Predict the 3D structure of the following.
Amino acid sequence: MTKAQVVANLAIGAALITTAAHASDPVAGRQKYEATCAACHGVNAISVAPLYPNLAGQKDAYLIAQLTAFRDGTRPNAIMAPMARSLSDTDIANIANFLASLKP
């Protein structure tokens, strides 16, 4: 793959992530977050333990990319992979939208 093709693929991926995040539902994201993520990352996305990062206020595109990578196995992690495996693209976009809306 040429450098131009890589750049084009990255631009398309970023556009898709941005579109997914803007079309998402933060209310559904909050519900899924509370059921799946809050035990470790905190009810308000401020971590309950130093091991887990705070997620409140993170950019939605970053969260979508990371959750997708955990789910798909391109970012291996023994804790996050099983948690993310059951999330659909819609779930991920909704969770990311909810978290991005929170104040750190």
Q: What stands out?
A: The two ends are 40 Å apart (CA to CA). The mean pLDDT is 88. Residues 68 and 92 are 7 Å apart (CA to CA).
